[in-house]
Design a protein that fits this description.
- The chain has a four-stranded parallel beta sheet, with helices on both faces. Strands 1-2 form a two-stranded parallel sheet.
- Strand 3, helix 5 and strand 4 form a beta-alpha-beta unit.
- The protein contains nine helices and six strands.
- The chain folds into two domains: 59 residues, Rossmann fold; 110 residues, Rossmann fold (3-Layer(aba) Sandwich).
- It is globular, with a radius of gyration of 16 Å.
C-alpha cells in the first residue's frame, strides 16, 4: 500500500508491474495518470459496486449524469452514519465534481443511515455510497426501490470515474464498459 503521491516512484522500484492497482475513488484521476496503461486499475468503490450491488446498473446510472438539467434534485445516499468532515466526499466533493462536469445548477440532498426517502421518485439521480456497512441484500433492495420509481442509481466510485473521464479504464478488469452497457 502506498499513498497516491508515492505510486509513481513505487512502480519504478518494483521488479515487475503489478497485475492490478486498486485505489480510493477520490484519487482515481491522479492514479490513472501515474499508472502504466498496461496495468489494470479500479477503485475500492467499484469493487463494492460489483460485490454488493450490480455494477452494470451503476454504470448505466452514471450515464444519467449527462441528462441532468438546472434545478434537478440529486440524492446522495450513505448507509453509514459517520460525522461529515470538512471536505466530505458525499457532501462536498461529489456534488462539486458533478456540477463542474455538467455545468448545471443542481440541488443535492442527502440521506444518511437507514433512512431512504419515500419520495425517491422526485429525484433525477441517486448517487449511493459503496455500501460497506450494509449487506448485498440491503444494497440490492435500494437499487430495486430506485428501479421501481424509474430513478437511475449509481455509486460514488462509478460516478467519480465517469465525471473524471476514467470510467472505461477502471472497468477494464471486469470486461470493459461495453460489457456493462449492453
Amino acid at each position: 500500500m502506498v499513498k497516491e503521491r508515492e505510486l509513481f516512484a513505487t512502480l519504478q522500484t518494483l521488479g515487475r508491474k503489478p497485475a492490478l492497482i486498486v485505489c480510493d475513488s477520490q484519487v482515481v484521476l491522479k492514479v490513472a495518470a501515474d499508472a502504466p496503461r498496461e496495468v489494470k486499475l479500479t477503485t475500492f468503490s467499484i469493487l463494492f459496486a460489483r460485490h454488493k450491488g450490480d455494477l452494470a446498473t451503476f454504470v448505466r446510472g452514471a450515464k444519467a449524469i449527462d441528462e441532468l438539467r438546472d434545478g434537478d434534485r440529486v440524492l446522495i445516499a450513505e448507509t453509514c452514519s459517520h460525522h461529515p468532515v470538512g471536505d466530505d466526499i458525499g457532501r462536498v466533493k461529489i456534488p462539486r465534481w458533478i456540477r463542474q462536469y455538467t455545468g448545471r445548477d443542481l440541488k443535492f440532498e442527502h440521506a444518511q443511515g437507514r433512512r431512504f426517502p419515500d419520495n425517491l421518485g422526485d429525484y433525477r439521480l441517486v448517487v449511493h455510497c459503496g455500501g460497506c456497512m450494509v449487506t448485498p441484500k440491503v444494497m440490492r433492495a435500494r437499487m430495486g426501490e430506485a428501479a421501481a420509481r424509474a430513478v437511475p442509481i449509481t455509486n460514488y466510485g462509478v460516478a467519480i470515474a465517469y465525471v473524471q473521464g476514467v470510467l472505461p479504464r477502471v472497468l477494464e478488469p471486469f470486461g470493459g464498459i461495453e460489457a456493462m452497457v449492453q
